[in-house]
Amino acid sequence: MKTIIVKPQQMEKKWYLIDAEGKELGRVAVAATNILRGKNKPEYLPNEDMGDYVIIINVAKAAMSGNKAQDKMYRRVSGYAGGMKEETYAQTIVRKPCYPMEHAIKGMLPKGPLGRKLFTNVKVYAGAEHPHAAQQPIQVEI
Fold first, then answer.
1. d(C-alpha 37, C-alpha 118), whole Å
2. Which partner from 4, 54, 85, 128 sits 20 to 30 angstroms from 60, CA to CA?
3. CA gap 28, 54 in Å, rounded
4. Which tens digits make up the pLDDT trace of 3-20?
């Protein structure tokens, strides 16, 4: 029996489109992360970039269950004493509508050079329009 390992350079990367309108933010992030890592392919390797490109649209209309819109906090620190800023999901979605989805996806990717490379393969848009129509993305249902 011979094991065949496909090199990432030999694979053709596909483009996938996920519509987040009305869907829970975490479930969309999990689906996107699995596609980014390549876990939906039989030739998956955990230490290689085997994944595809993911386009996520309508992230401003993604749902949060329960009271998470008021309870979930996003924190950032300026580096100065007393420079920690806190805001809820509802406040963040008004200021930067793509940030909560990007933050969730980035937290689910591996830490280090591989995770940083994989994060460049996701494109997040607040509205329904995106500039990647020429890539003919495949619609993914969640």
1. 7
2. 85
3. 11
4. 877 777 778 899 999 999
What is the identity of the amino acid at 64? M
On whether the CB atoms of residues 74 and 99 are closer than 8 A, the answer is yes
Buried b (16+ CB within 10 A) or exposed e, 78-94: eeeeeeeeebebeebbe
**Sheet containing strand 138-140, strands side by side:** 122-124, 53-57, 15-19, 138-140
Residue 108: name the closest of 127, 122, 88, 128 by CA.
122
**45 token code pair:** 């390797």
DSSP secondary structure, 89-133, as one string: HHHHHHH-TTHHHHHHHHHHSPSSHHHHHHHTTEEE-SSS--S-G
pTM of this structure: 0.91
Q: Which candidate, 51, 53, 50, places its Cα nearest to that of 7?
A: 50
Task: Read off the pLDDT band of 80 (50, 70, 90).
Answer: very high
